[in-house]
Write a structure and sequence with these properties.
Elements lengths: L1 H14 L2 H9 L5 E2 H8 L3 H13 L3 E6 L2 E6 L2 H23 L1
Antiparallel strand pairs: 1-3, 2-3
């Protein structure tokens, strides 16, 4: 059980960054190429590149190259379910916080 707790803890650490969480939320519905992610999030190329690299290393996303574009998508269907769940909770929490 400790091994699984360490694995889940590492996953939650990767998910704890707002930019990485936003990237995963963007990839729930469709595959995007790197420039699209950059334009939507409005960050620097280097910043987005580093976050994509970390998500790739942790097998949360996968990539495929077509001509000069690199497309990213979620790695596992289970990750999609987890991110969808987190996304819905984020929306609910933001609404609650705005009411205060």
């Amino acid at each position: 059980m400790l091994k699984h707790a360490n694995t889940v803890s590492a996953l939650l650490h990767v998910l704890s960054n707002p930019t990485r969480l936003m990237i995963l939320c963007l990839l729930i519905n469709k595959e995007l190429y790197a420039q699209e992610v950059l334009e939507i999030l409005g960050s620097t190329k280097g910043n987005i590149s580093q976050h994509l690299k970390l998500l790739l290393l942790n097998k949360l996303i996968k990539k495929r190259k077509v001509a000069n574009r690199i497309y990213y998508s979620l790695y596992y269907l289970r990750i999609k379910k987890l991110i969808s769940c987190l996304k819905s909770y984020i929306v609910k929490i933001v609404k609650i916080l705005k009411m205060r």
